[in-house]
Amino acid sequence: MNPYIESFVRKTHFHHHRLFHGPKRKIMTYRKCIKKFSIYRVTGFAVGKINLGTLDILELQGKLQGEEEALNRRIIDKKISTINQRNEFRSFFFFLEKEYPEDYQHLPFLKSERPDFILRYKREVIGIEITEAIDAGDAQQRAKIYESELRGRRAGEIEEYVDQTPAMAVLGKSKISLEKLIAKRIKDKKEKFEDFQRVDREILIIIANHHEFQGSGDIETMRKALERKGPLKEAPFSLVVMNLIHGIYAHFYWERDKVILHKKPGNREIIPEFSEARIRRKNPWKKT
I need a labelling partner for 283 at 20 to 30 A (CA). Which of 125, 219, 246, 272 fits? Predict the structure, then answer.
């Protein structure tokens, strides 16, 4: 076994556990999730950089150069994280980069439950809940693919493979449309948000790695569908829909019987219906 890969995996496991399984409610930033390792042996050295949240390998040098697939396989074998947990962080970091392009690497956040993340931007505390527009058939197929011979590939390639060969289509059944999947997720979260920790503003992120949402024209199609069906009406959150494979991102909110698309992420005024801060049940930044 390659000793450099073994050492890299052990270091990744150690720092991942220390960052995410140490004291609860630890304040993090994107920068804190980026870890660089140096590995020295008699035969040489290696340098690697990894995102501990997504477990995406960012840089390999020396004896590790070109070992991305072998490292991915070993990390998955160690079961440090699941593809769902990785996608949760990928979508959250993508959201930060799109909404706050100048500050996203340094914004403080908490990894939480109900909602999944709590973000502080200036004087505003924002709750971020993340879900995925995927039916049961595709979810089961992806789990099998992820543990199969494709497991060493990057997550985006696995996601794209799943979307191209949906399990429901293989079974001869009609696949659920993205529009219906998103409406279902919104409905489910509207019911559950009442039990979530109170913050100043809530945002629901839906990961939609679908062929129906992979171009700029699909954003307007989605906006019209949300406006026509009205699932966002009276929702306690605004809605972000993103395709992590193709880098498509849209942030929608409901205002006066219309669905509005944010035109300038990161440089907008607070949405009117969310401008009045709610009374929080407890301070999310207080150490427990």
Answer: 272
> How far is 135 from 243, CA to CA, in rounded Å?
16
Q: Is the CA virtual torsion 196, 198, 199, 202 positive or negative?
A: positive
Indicate the Cα dihedral angle 13, 100, 235, 233, nearest 10°.
-140
Residues 6+ apart with CB under 8 A from 213: 178, 219, 222, 241, 243, 248
CB atoms within 10 A of CB 122: 7
Give 259's contacts (C-beta < 8 A, 6+ positions apart): 223, 224, 226, 227, 232, 252, 253
118-to-185, 199, 238, 281, 286 alpha-carbon distances in Å: 20, 8, 15, 14, 12
Burial-class residue 217 by CB neighbours within 10 Å (0-12, 13-18, 19+). exposed
Cα R_g (the chain), whole angstroms: 20
What letters, b where the CB count within 10 A reaches 16 and e where it falls short, cover 95-119? bbebbbeeebbebebbbbeebbbbb
What beta strand segments (E) does 63-137 contain?
Answer: 109-111, 117-121, 124-132
> What 3-state class would DSSP assign to 271?
coil
Distance between terminal CA atoms of the chain? 42
Per residue in 30-45, pLDDT tens?
Answer: 999 999 999 999 889 9
Which are the contacts of 165, defined by CB distance < 8 A and separation ≥ 6?
Answer: 141
pTM for the full predicted model:
0.82
Residue pointed to by tokens 């870890």: 35
Low-confidence ranges of the chain (pLDDT < 50): 163-174, 265-281, 288
* Alpha helix positions (H), 193-243: 216-229
What pLDDT score was predicted for residue 197? 82
